[in-house]
Design goal:
Elements (H helix, E strand, L loop, with lengths): L4 E3 L18 H14 L3 E4 L1 E2 L5 E2 L2 H14 L3 E4 L9 H6 L7 E5 L3 E3 L2 E3 L3 H14 L2 E6 L2 H14 L8 E6 L9 H10 L6 E6 L4 H10 L3 E4 L6 E3 L2 E2 L3 H14 L7 H8 L4
Parallel strand pairs: 1-2, 1-12, 2-5, 5-6, 6-9, 9-10, 10-11, 11-12
Antiparallel strand pairs: 3-4, 7-8, 13-14
Helix pairs in contact: 1-2, 1-8
The structure holds (5S)-5-amino-3-OXO-hexanoic acid and zinc ion (ZN).
Length: 273
Amino acid sequence: MATLITVAPTGAETSKADFPALPTTLEELVETAQRCEHAGAAMIHVHIRDAEHRPTLDLGRLTATVDALCEQTSLIVQLSTGGAVTDPFEHRLRVLDAEPDSCSLTMGTVNFGDDVFTNPWPFVTQLYQLTQEREVVPEFELFDLGHVAALHRLLDKYGLPYGGRVHCDLVMGVPGGMPGDARTLVAAVDALPAAVTSWSATGIGRTSLPVAFAALAAGGHLRVGMEDTLTFARRQPVTHNAELVERAARLAELAQSPAMATDAARELLQVKR
Ligand code: KMH
Ligand code: ZN
């Protein structure tokens, strides 16, 4: 058994001005991806920024990002279809035109701090059918137990994803979603559909470590990165995403489930290339 480590290096919520170490340019993203791959990551969950470091779903930039990451790393490239809370549905669907290996697919609406991350059922089903048509492997993002119920409903009605594997990610500790603790993780994992073949978990902010420990103890994989966690402790900021990947790889090693290589991860998720 090995642990798939996904790095989510940027996200859409943190500003470059507040956190200059956040990779927001293509050069910074590629350098981050290379260092994170070296540290043990096998997949990268990508949000991009525009020239002013603001979140964007610009198709030209997304395509250039996928191309650069595929050329300069062996990582599985997963584009976010969640984007920022302000992104319209059409732009979020258009992300698949950039031809990533994988994409995120959030299974329902959730309060998101002071905002709402909107994922109504018709959008979820449209995006899911698009992943099947375009042969992109979805990663189902589950922010709440209701999202697990929605995943049952989706798979019952629309069948398996492209590639035949079902991979999901528990996103825990978002203010408005499920808490990031061991008992919630166990409850969510117990409730997953039988068709799920692999799952990872990530804990936002200070829930990062408790969620990682619980996930490893329960046989899950890990997602880490500055999208979710910006500090190790009070006044100890993360200075590079690779530090979070290195920590995850150390934990995985201790749990006797070391970091998974990229070719094994491709096999696990059955991505196209
Ligand atoms: N930025 C959040 C609103 C995803 O990437 O699919 C949504 C998010 C989930 O990060
Ligand atoms: Zn994301």
